[in-house]
Specification:
single chain, 370 residues, mainly beta, Tachylectin-2, Chain A, 3 helices
Length: 370
């Protein structure tokens, strides 16, 4: 890796994770995760919730069918969760409804109070063409050094999708900036379909805050393979490329494992003393995957990257650190089941991991800080 004159030239060295020993993983992983004895699922649909949709100009039951795939942040001593909520419009199939983001807060990380109206949604703005009618999906959120909240989310118009960027000071009033890679490399990535982006964070002032490495912010992104991008301002992002000009691939499917179909970026990664811990979601193969998981099920794993070279893979868990075990995790709108992890906070001196349960509900698991 060489950095000079504002340009980034990469010689990407990846370490194969094959043969990693379980005991080595235990030293650097976040976890083990345990579900609280009571409280789960922490967020469920509420058909009675309505608001006047600015596009429809009519009332919408915006969280009537499903509430899942949450982002999380600590603010004013409370956990704030932005969760994906699907209304009861459209056909009864995955992707057929309009998604908006609800906001819930908790004093203990388990019991939540929710806003009656969504906090983030498609509107009559310059992003409508990218977000309507499918909506805004699957958020991740980080806090910047100056207290601004930066949201990465999927913009879905039922034709194409990309990672959108938005910022807020209060989690209810937002500025949208459009796709993360819209202007990268002279527009090279403007039409790319991509989702799932987590910005690297570090525990500061008792909570997770976006952190710079070698003078830049870093983001792990993608499904199918996990990639990297950098930014100077947390808004405009540039994919890190290999010597052939392709976006580098850091994690790929592993036959016989829980991520045998593909890995997908989870919550914002965390800089630790061991390196950068990336929690990610793996989709099991229909055949030839992890025999302890059902076909096409999603479970969460972890990977460790070098603190000074975020492309250098140092370790990877052999099996999942969180997998579908409870009935509502094993099946739901997504029949194969998920523990789809997207929100991670450091709160009350321990980790809280928020995840989607089978595209239907929100769950939480906790872990001590090592």
């Amino acid at each position: 890796m060489k950095i000079g004159n504002g340009s980034l030239v990469w010689v990407v060295a990846l370490v194969c994770a094959t043969g990693l020993q379980a005991q080595s993983a235990e030293k650097w992983t976040i976890g083990p995760f345990v579900r609280p004895a009571t409280g789960n699922p922490v967020i469920a649909p509420r058909p009675e919730s309505t608001f006047t949709d600015p596009v429809l100009k009519a009332p919408a039951q915006w969280e009537a069918l499903h509430t899942f795939n949450p982002a999380a942040i600590v603010r004013d001593g409370k956990v704030e969760v932005l969760y994906r909520a699907e209304d009861n419009s459209g056909p009864m199939e995955i992707g057929g409804h309009t998604s908006r983001l609800g906001l819930a807060e908790s004093k203990d990380g388990v019991h939540f109070k929710r806003l009656a109206a969504p906090a983030f949604y498609p509107a009559e703005d310059d992003q409508k063409a990218r977000e309507w009618p499918g909506g805004v999906e699957d958020p991740r959120i980080v806090e910047s050094e100056d207290g601004t909240y930066v949201l990465t989310y999927t913009q879905w118009n039922r034709t194409t999708y990309s990672v959108g960027i938005a910022t807020s000071r209060d989690l209810t009033h937002w500025t949208k900036y459009g796709p993360a890679f819209l202007t990268a490399a002279g527009g090279k990535y403007a039409h790319l379909k991509y989702k799932s982006a987590g910005i690297v964070t570090e525990v500061k002032k008792g909570r997770l805050i976006a952190t710079k490495i070698n003078g830049r912010y870093w983001m792990y992104w993608g499904e199918g393979a996990i990639h990297l991008a950098t930014s100077d301002d947390l808004i405009h992002w540039n994919p890190v490329e290999d010597m052939q000009g392709n976006a580098v691939e850091l994690l790929r499917p592993r036959p016989g494992h829980f991520d045998s179909t593909f890995p997908e970026t989870g919550p914002p990664p965390v800089m630790t003393g061991a390196g950068i811990v990336v929690l990610y979601n793996g989709k099991n193969a229909n055949s030839g995957g992890d025999p302890e998981l059902g076909p096409a099920a999603y479970a969460a794993g972890e990977a460790l990257f070098d603190a000074s070279n975020p492309a250098y893979l140092k370790g990877q868990t052999t099996g999942p650190v969180l997998k579908p075990e409870l009935p509502y995790e094993k099946t739901g709108q997504y029949a194969a089941g998920t523990t789809f992890s997207e929100g991670l906070v450091f709160f009350h001196k321990k980790w809280f991991l928020y995840y989607g349960c089978a595209d239907s509900l929100v769950g939480v698991a906790t872990a001590p800080r090592k």
